[in-house]
Structure formats: structure tokens, C-alpha cells
What does this fold into?
Amino acid sequence: MNRILGIETSCDETAVAIVNGDGEVLTTEISLVSSQIDVFKEIGGVVPEVAAREHMERLLALLERVVPRDGEGIDAIAVTSGPGLAPALRVGVEVAKMLAWSWKKPLYPVSHLEGHIYSNWLDKESVPAFPALCLLVSGGHTELVLMKGHGDFQKLGETLDDAAGEAFDKVASMLDLPYPGGPAISALAKEGDIKAFDFPRGLLDRDDYNFSFSGLKTSVLYTLRDREGELDDDQFRKNISASFQEAVVDVLAKKTERAANVFKPASLMLTGGVAANESLRERFFELAQRFNIPLFIPDREYTTDNAAMIAAVGYMHVHAGKNSADPKEVVADSNLSFYGT
Ligand code: KG4
Ligand code: ZN
It folds into this structure.
């Protein structure tokens, strides 16, 4: 039971992968991602029903490139069953159910967020030691998680409003930058002054591990409104980007540091689409050094949505002796939680 097929359709990336496991070491045999970014670039966000239609068109074509029609050589199937956009999730879940049923292979519904965490086990020479402190930052989620063992997760905190990636996307849209906004903002920020604007650091004075980015977003909006005449000034845009990015990164790093002081983790993890951010990565390298613990960040192709991370969770379920699901009972759950299991 070592060769796992992963299927992911929770948002705007259709993805299929095969992962091979040997003990705790996971090797990606193949990982294909068909991104719908071009479809949603114009709109500036994802439309669930449109994403679902795109998944339908793309998923079978990807599967055809990865597995034989009879599923030979595949030991189990793992599919993202949540959280995510319900119509999009349903496409992957229904296809996976049919495959499991017709191939007579075990099916494991898995959490997309657990997938982001397990992307740190893919193609690595060493794996995170427990307890591991993990910051999961994507377009839909911002969560600080204490992983005490395999499948044993405690949520320490989460965003009370926008996700970090969402904040990047919204500020990018205010600056008329393309979607997704993270890469565009971070490119501008490189040549900007982080001290040009003193943007608010949400909830930093509160003694918990929750985040809030809506005040920051509003503050950027008001600054742009007050100084509308400068919107075409390159340096102004770079300074806004740099100061905004610094405010996000600062809060993420300081809250993680606070948790590290309390929970004394044996390793640190950064994962999700925003983990591609250079400035955030740098702050995490410093943090890991200060606490003298190893830092794990997935390889770039696994920071954003992919199916290898989903296959990785499926493998871990198999490895832990978990029962597979009855395909008839597997459903997409847009609010699926992976805590407290
Ligand atoms: O994990 P992901 O691919 O999708 C979700 O599950 O949400 O994350 C996508 C998010 C987007 O909001 C995008 O703007 C952000 O990750 N992102 C970045 C960077 N690259 C991608 N944010 C900041 N800096 C980046 N370099
Ligand atoms: Zn994701």
C-alpha cells in the first residue's frame, strides 16, 4: 500500500499526483497542476461554479496522463473533501468515488489544510520532529497549528477576518495589479521603503494567536484615497507595497514567535501559497535560528495547491492503519476540520 493517487479540486487548481511512500519518506513520482488563474485573472477572484466546470473539463485529461484506465499499480486513492468551494470540491470527490468503486481500491477523503502541512514531507531528506509549530498561510486560510504527532493537530489561532493571501490579493487589486496579488506586491515591495507608511499590526497587542488583516486593508485603502494623485508614481506604489507587506509579515512572525516561546517546538514549518513570500521566509529563517530548531518550507511547487500533498496525507492514513472510507458515504464538506482527531 505504498503508491497513492491524489486528487485536488478545492479551489482554482485542478491537480493529480502519484506519491510513493517508504516509512516516513515520501517521494513524488508525478505531480500535475492545471491552474485556472488565467480564467479568473480578469474577474479578480474565483467563481465557484465556473471553477467546477473547469475542473470537470481538466480532471479526466490529467488522470489520463497519470494512471492507466484500470488503475493498475495504484494502491489507494486520496481526495480533498474539504475545506474549499463546495461545487469545486464535489468534482474531485465524485470522480474519486467512482474510481475507487470501479477499481476496488481504498478511498481516503482528506483535508486540504492537512495536505498543506504534509507538503513538508514531500521529497525531503529529513522530516519535521514533533511537536512542530506550523504557520499555514494561503489565499483562504491563516492558521497557527501545533502538530503534536501524525494526525494530531491543535489549532492555536486563526484569522478572524481575511486570510493573509486574501489581504495581498485585495491590496493588489486596489493598486490595479493582476490576480493573484501576492507575487505582484512582493515584486514591487523589493524596491520600496518598509518604513514609508506605518500601517496597523492587527491584534498584536492581544495575548492570543489570532490574526486580523481587515484594519490593515482599510488603512491602505484610506491612504490610497487620501493620496490619489500619487497612484501613478512608481515609488509611491513600491512604498505602499513594502510597508503593507512588512505589516503582514511582522504580525505573522511575531505571533509565531510568541507561540514558539510558550510551546517550545522541536521544529518550525511554514506552508501554503504565501510561504512563497521572500520576506516571510527570511523572518522564519531568523526565527528558527534564534530557537535553534530546523525550519521546513515545502519546495516551491508544493507551496501552492497541488495533489502530491493530498496523496501524502492519504499515505500517512494508510501508514497509520486508518480505515478507508465507504465511497458511497464520502461527501464534499466545505468546512471540513482536521483538528482534534
Ligand atoms: O495555497 P494557495 O495556492 O491557495 C489557497 O489554498 O488559497 O495560496 C494562494 C495565495 C494567494 O492569495 C496569493 O496571492 C498568495 O498565495 N501568494 C503570495 C505570494 N505568492 C502567492 N502572497 C505573498 N507573497 C507571495 N510571493
Ligand atoms: Zn491551499
Summary: The chain is about 40% helix and 20% strand. Residues 11, 138-140, 165-166, 168-169, 180-183, 186, 272-274, 276-277, 304-305 surround KG4 (ligand 1) (CB under 6 Å).
